[in-house]
Amino acid sequence: MRALTWTGLSPPPLPAMVARMTTTSKMVALRRMNLRKDRVCVSATAVSSGGGVVEAVELAEIGEKSKKWKWKGEYSINYFVKSSPEEVTPASQTVLLVHGFGASIPHWRRNINALSKHHTVYAIDLLGFGASEKPPGFSYTMESWAELILNFLEEVVQKPTVLIGNSVGSLACVIAASEESQRDLVRGLVLLNCAGGMNNKAVFDDWRIKLLMPLLLLIDFLLKQRGIASALFNRVKDRHDSENLKNILTNVYGNKDNVDDTLVEIIAGPANSEGALDAFVSILTGPPGPNPITLIPEITKPVLVLWGDQDGLTPLDGPVGKYFTSLPGQLPNFNLYVLEGVGHCPQDDRPDLVHERLLPWLAQLSST
């Protein structure tokens, strides 16, 4: 495992395999890659993570103990909270877990127990995902999710909080942290394979995206045709074609053992709820959002970055990885650890490696 220090983000490139596909295959594969981008895994018992057994929260507990909060007095937001059973110490932190595209609170089931032994843990379903509302006609943006996070901290958590996000969830946390300087709601940031935008249109400095931009724009047009979007969406989430979704997820993970039938069922479930298709289309065809490279310099709070080196969606040799690894030692509040053999979703792929870096960092945060 390599330790680095970094100070910025760059948007995610497409996997190199896209360049070798035919035009027809690209159209299908690009959407599948966006679908799999953050659709990550969950199961219901203690599981082996490749380096040991990790105690997972039961899915039934997450479902039964989740709560609802009205965002802006209008939108129903699903969240889960688990407090430390031990006496709170000065080193205890309050943390908020923010999932990525297509995922939800159970995405963090392998992390909640480890974190809640000494910290208070909140997890949230972003608007449009999981058990949160998926309002018809809503235009999803990175800025709206960042606003949701800050409002949640202010109205529900009501304590300085460490934001922990994966992929687009990480980017939403970055945006939130860059906007809350006067409210002091964010205690620190933990970014797991942070995305460069809400979708691939953010990556203008990657030759692969430049080459495929006309195709991406065509796909945007096709996705706005209801019949085409519905057919593609149903194909990917179809529970009766679990191998299709399982193959997509396998390409995202370094630890293939964590891709199983339970994972497929959990991911397919929320996709069948009302409004899921509209959210899918709005996110993939909407604006990519603020460039994180311009936001990172505004953040003075401590930042921990954990990055799976087998990530084909935001690879270390792409713009994001190159930018991070070119900046070691320039800002003392940033630290990056590369996790070997890990894919796009480290917290579920190899939670043991994540906890190895995350837990000590949280314990030391009170001294910074």
From TrEMBL:
Residues 94-351 form the AB hydrolase-1 domain. It comes from the Eukaryota. Pfam families: Abhydrolase_1 (PF00561). PANTHER family: ALPHA/BETA-HYDROLASES SUPERFAMILY PROTEIN, ALPHA_BETA-HYDROLASES SUPERFAMILY PROTEIN. This is AB hydrolase-1 domain-containing protein.
